[in-house]
What we know:
Layout: E1 3-15, E2 22-27, E3 36-39, E4 43-50, E5 59-62, E6 88-94, E7 99-105, E8 116-122, E9 135-144, H1 149-156, E10 169-172, E11 207-209, E12 214-221, E13 227-232, E14 237-242, E15 245-252, E16 254-257, E17 262-268, E18 277-284, E19 293-299, H2 321-330, E20 347-358, E21 361-366, E22 369-371, H3 378-383, E23 415-417, E24 421-423, E25 428-434, E26 447-451, E27 456-463, H4 468-471, E28 482-483, E29 485-488, E30 492-499, E31 504-510, H5 513-517, E32 521-526, H6 536-539, H7 545-551
Parallel strand pairs: 1-4, 3-8, 9-12, 11-19, 20-25, 22-23, 24-32
Antiparallel strand pairs: 1-2, 4-6, 5-7, 7-8, 9-10, 12-17, 13-16, 13-18, 14-15, 14-17, 18-19, 20-21, 25-30, 26-29, 26-31, 27-28, 27-30, 31-32
This protein binds CU-O-CU linkage and copper (II) ion.
Amino acid sequence: AKTRHFRWDVGYMFWSPDCVENVVMAINGQFPGPTIRARAGDTIVVHLHNKLHTEGLVIHWHGIRQLETPWADGTASISQCVINPEEPFVYRFKVDKAGTYFYHGHYGMQRSAGLYGSLIVDVAEGEKEPFHYDGEFNLLLSDWWHQSVHEQEVGLSSNPFRWIGEPQSVLINGRGQYNCSLAAHFNNSTSKLCKIKGDAQCSPHALRVLPNKTYRLRIASTTSLNSLNLAIGNHKMVVVEADGNYVDPVAVENMDIYSGESYSVLITTDQSPSMNYWVSLSVRGRKPNTPPGLTILNYYPNVPAKLPILPPPVSPLWNNYTHSKSFTNKILALESKTPKPPTRFNRRIYLLNTQTKINGFTKWSINNISLVLPSTPYLGSMKHNLKGAFDPKSPPERFSHHYDVMKPAANPNSTHGSGVYVLEFNTTIDIILQNANALAENVSEIHPWHLHGHDFWVLGYGEGKFSEKNDEKKLNLKNPPYRNTAVIFPYGWTALRFVTDNPGVWAFHCHIEPHLHMGMGVIFAEGVNRVKNIPDAAIGCGLTAKLTKNNGL
Ligand code: C2O
Ligand code: CU
């Protein structure tokens, strides 16, 4: 195994992700940030320098469990202090498991500002993937607004509330096309054909393939808001990996990707090599106001600029949840390569997801508490048993069984909180995520929940309120997918199981950036007394600042 060093300067720059000039957060002048590529077992060392000048910064390594390095998880107020303007910080962590991952800012709404990139871990030297492929491509998916994240953030935190609306563009590897379409000549719509120079910042990266080969597409979604559906004209996709774990191979015509998820799919280039084909990403789960993101599957020897003869693949209707559920239920673990879930749990926590009000401000709440992060990072204050750093009371384990998840709440008011679910070390925890109606009638949204520090088994999905009597026996303990992100469907529940084997403080939250900003998350902590060697720089702020200065910890 190797130690791989990276030197990163993070700063703002002008850029035109969708052909419209804007300001993005860039790493070493690149947007998206540079791809980290390593082998399982390697140590990654990122020497970061905050050149944002007026704002703090942290970077989260999404999907990396941070075994023995919980301080390197890159979550502001949770695992570390924000890195101040002009200051350096060094992340050092092991990538223990091959897979498709990504990284992104985890302070305020910096992910929406464009602070993200890919992190790809190949199998260790001498090991093999359980499938064959001749080449690979990387598709990092995001959504993009022309309004600055600062304006977005102020709108979300204002009364009256101002929603950010739908994005202007869907980006593939940071590239999209606003107000024009590569496929305009197929639309009866008014969109005009894009005239983009090949070297423009918004010109699509074609996927250049040879006929009769197998390619691996690594797909990861860091969208701020949108759920996406990927389809490739004339080509089936065989899903083989989800969130850094192998899945039982399954062939699909199109697939849903929620924010925080990653997949690998295999495609075979067995179609007529006389033409090119579309790769299309359309919006799901919310009434789209954003045209699909497009790029080209370019069969050699055609030129990439040669547009496909066929129209882009038709994607399922945005509100066809039956289709989404059927795709989600097809993703199952590759049993020979996946650990089995314990058959029993020690503690089961029910988390009700509701949209609420606090003094007239619109929030999202879990068991009626909307998360606000403390100024002192939990990892430091819990490690040193400091009083007064966060709400000492444990948040509720469940919600009233009278709660009607199909209707707006009788009382929509909730409270702020910073309490922690302290989990006993090395125990099995079940989480029942329960969706409900939002503030408005007949509205229930999709929420992709992401857990830090762990993979979990997704034991099942269901409709309405989870019932111990009827739903328990339907849980899949045989081959549940092992993942770090799982969605809850409108008016439904999702059951997760994980083992508290990783000392640290871990966020568990909706991966929709505005929802997290509005309080949609909880904090888990386990075995914090076992955490060793927290660098001073990680917790030298707030109530723990003095400790690091006097004792050097
Ligand atoms: Cu990718 Cu806490 O998130
Ligand atoms: Cu959400």
